[in-house]
Amino acid sequence: MGSTEAEGLPPLPAPGTALVEELDKKQLIILRDGRKLIGILRSFDQFANLVLEDAFERIIVGEMYGDIPLGLYVIRGENVVLLGQVDPTREVPANLTKVTASEIKQAQKAEKTEVMLKGTMLKRMDFLDDVG
Amino acid sequence: MLFYSYFKTLVGQQVTVELKNDLAITGSLHSVDQYLNIKLENTRVVDEGKYPHMMSVKNCFIRGSVVRYVQLPAGGVEVDILHDATRREARGT
């Protein structure tokens, strides 16, 4: 792959070494399904498969947030959207209040049902489109 | 390899990366690799109110596979050079 490199360019860095600087630091990972994981990055590879230590999922609902402890996590690279270094001095989202894991799970569930309900209501009104 | 080389010439410039999940992040391009994974510095999320968890993130790594667009600074593209390079690459020289 690197042998056909145009003249004058420096040699390619080894595949996927961009994360070396992020090792052993607290990272926020956004997954393809929208989940947000926070943990210390311990290892990675060229696919962005990741190993997170002391990981937890952070759920934000409205003005509340809650953390669900997960422990040691290996994340398959294809699910990773973004990895960002967390500034330790402002890790806690401003103007959000912390609640317990069970409370945030409950809030998330409530939000989900509300969204679903809205969806079915809209569906029931679909016939109006046909009339017009 | 062409766009990898091209993105490398943009390092240091302000770009906006729009992801497939509609999140758009502005920042200065720190580095890019052959998968077009992108690292941004001094990032700012375009719609901050919608993504409160991104407030604490100042530098980030974006997996190339989730990028939809990269918005470049005006004048960021030297179209003639890119044209030329494209044709050279197509000829395989």
Order of helices and strands of chain B: HEEEEEH
Q: Round the mean pLDDT of chain B to the nearest integer and report it.
A: 90
Name of the CATH first level of chain B: Mainly Beta
CATH-assigned fold name of chain A: SH3 type barrels
| Class based on secondary structure composition and strand pairing of chain A | alpha+beta
Amount of helix of chain B: 10-25%
**Shape category of chain B:** elongated
Q: Into how many domains do the coordinates of chain A divide?
A: 1
Overview of the molecule:
The complex is a heterodimer of chains A (132) and B (93). By secondary structure, chain A is of the alpha+beta class. Chain A has one domain (20-130): SH3 type barrels (Roll). Chain A has two helices and six strands. Chain A has helices spanning 101-124, 127-131, and strands spanning 26-31, 36-44, 50-61, 64-75, 80-86, 97-98. Chain A is extended. Chain B is α+β, with helices and mostly antiparallel strands and 93 residues long. Helix content of chain B is 23%, strand content 37%. Chain B has helices at 2-9, 79-91; strands at 14-19, 24-32, 38-45, 57-62, 67-71. Chain B has a five-stranded antiparallel β-sheet with strand order 4-3-2-1-5. Chain B is elongated and about 50 Å long. Chains A and B meet through strand 5 of A and strand 4 of B. Chain B: Keywords: mRNA processing, mRNA splicing, Nucleus, Ribonucleoprotein, RNA-binding, Spliceosome. Chain B: Belongs to the snRNP Sm proteins family. Chain B: This is Sm-like protein LSM2.
List descriptors:
heterodimer, A: 132 residues, alpha+beta, SH3 type barrels, six-stranded mixed beta sheet, 2 helices, 6 strands, B: 93 residues, five-stranded antiparallel beta sheet, elongated, Sm_dom_euk/arc (chain B)
What is the topology?
The complex is a heterodimer of chains A (132) and B (93).
Chain A: E1 26-31, E2 36-44, E3 50-61, E4 64-75, E5 80-86, E6 97-98, H1 101-124, H2 127-131
Parallel strand pairs in A: 4-6
Antiparallel strand pairs in A: 1-2, 1-5, 2-3, 3-4
Chain B: H1 2-9, E1 14-19, E2 24-32, E3 38-45, E4 57-62, E5 67-71, H2 79-91
Antiparallel strand pairs in B: 1-2, 1-5, 2-3, 3-4
